[in-house]
Specification:
The chain is α/β, with parallel strands linked by helices. The protein has helices spanning 13-25, 31-39, 71-84, 99-106, 118-131, 166-170, and strands at 60-63, 66-68, 89-93, 110-115, 136-139, 152-157, 172-184, 187-196, 199-208.
Length: 223
C-alpha cells in the first residue's frame, strides 16, 4: 500500500498571515507590498535566538550592532517606493539581514544592495544562495551608492543619514525616487527625494528610529 507524502508544514504561515493582517490595520494598502510580505519567509532572516519573534511588529538584533526593522517600517518604506517606482532598477543601501532586498525582489524589481559589514554581507550572500534570491550584493560604503549600475529608478536607504548623500542623488534616474530617513539619534524623518532633470523635490513624512548610516557621506564611526 502506497502512502502519499504529506506536504512540508510551514509552522510560520499563520504568523505571516497575522502579520499581513496587522499591516492592513496599520494602513498599508498596496497589494503588491502585502503579497510580498505574505510570500517572503521573514523568520529565515533572523539569527536563531530571535527567530521566535520574527513576525512580531518590533525591531530585533541581527548581530554586529545592527537590527532588522519592524515589519511596519519595511512595509511603509516599500509602499513609498512602489507608489513612485512600480518597476525597474532599484538600489538598497544597508543590506542588513537581507529581508528588505528579498521583499523588493519578490515584487519584481531588479535589486542591488550594498552592505559595509563583511559578516552581514557574507551571511546574506550565503542565505540568498540557499533561497535562490537573485539580488546582486556588494560589500562597501553604502553612502557612496553603486555608481557602476546607475541610474536607479529607486533607491531605498535602511539606515539614518545626517543629510542626503550627494552620491545617491547623482545616481538617481530622471523621474526616480530616493527613500531615506534623515536625522540624528533623537529620531529621523522619512524623506522622499524625487528627481526631475537637475531639480530635486523633497517631501517629509513620519519620524522613525534607524541605526546610523556610516560612511564617507554618512556618519563617521566616532560620531
Amino acid at each position: 500500500m502506497m502512502h502519499m507524502q504529506k506536504p512540508e508544514y510551514d509552522e510560520y504561515e499563520l504568523q505571516r498571515r497575522e502579520m499581513v493582517r496587522q499591516l492592513r490595520l496599520y494602513g498599508i494598502v498596496n497589494e503588491r507590498v502585502l503579497k510580498a510580505f505574505s510570500e517572503v519567509e521573514r523568520h529565515r532572516f533572523f539569527i536563531p535566538e530571535y527567530r521566535n519573534r520574527a513576525y512580531e511588529d518590533c525591531a530585533c538584533p541581527i548581530g554586529y550592532g545592527q537590527t532588522i526593522s519592524q515589519p511596519f517600517t519595511v512595509a511603509y518604506m516599500t509602499s513609498m517606493l512602489a507608489e513612485r517606482c512600480p518597476s525597474g532598477n532599484v538600489l538598497e543601501i544597508g543590506t542588513g539581514s537581507g529581508y528588505q532586498a528579498a521583499i523588493l525582489d519578490a515584487m519584481g524589481y531588479e535589486v542591488r544592495s550594498v552592505e559595509r559589514l563583511p559578516e552581514l554581507h557574507e551571511r546574506v550572500a550565503k542565505l540568498f544562495g540557499e533561497l535562490g534570491i537573485p539580488v546582486e550584493l556588494r560589500l562597501g560604503d553604502g553612502s557612496l551608492g553603486w555608481p557602476e549600475h546607475a541610474p536607479y529608478q529607486g533607491i531605498i536607504v535602511t539606515a539614518a543619514a545626517p543629510r542626503i548623500p550627494h552620491a545617491l542623488k547623482e545616481q538617481l534616474a530622471d523621474g526616480g525616487s530616493l527613500i531615506i530617513p534623515v536625522g540624528g539619534a533623537e529620531g529621523q524623518v522619512m524623506t522622499v527625494l524625487t528627481r526631475e532633470g537637475y531639480t530635486f523635490h523633497k517631501d517629509t513624512f513620519e519620524t522613525f528610529a534607524f541605526v546610523p548610516l556610516v560612511g564617507r557621506e554618512g556618519w563617521r564611526r566616532d560620531d
